[in-house]
Write a structure and sequence with these properties.
17% of the residues lie in helices and 24% in strands. By secondary structure, it is an alpha+beta fold. It has a 5-stranded antiparallel β-sheet.
Amino acid sequence: MMPTPGFPPHTLDPEGAPIWITDLASDDPNHILHVVHGIEPAEALERLGARTRLMRPCELLDSTPDEWTSLPCAALGMDPGSSAALLAGRVGEWTFVYDDSGFTFENAAEALSADGRTAATSVFSINGDASLTYAVDG
């Protein structure tokens, strides 16, 4: 079997999703992944509507307590479905925000890409719907 272009062997799950995203999700995901170039994670969270006072660092656990809880939700001690658990980080010049509940979809790529930036939002719904939105400079 040939690896998918752009992904080294053993980095995708059996359905073709990156393993690191699958490992963050609950067993029945309804999630979003945002990426934006050139801003810090805290600013990306703010642009998505997160309240600064609620932001806190966390360390991801090795596993979740049940099939309904995402890894970020478990790490933050949240009840699944109570609100979105947002996990943000940075790799090089790119910042990512993982939303375990799909709450941050509305105009997200546009908000993240304001001020000349490049951003993308990938959605996977509980119904199996998938989409990708790409924006440059809002």
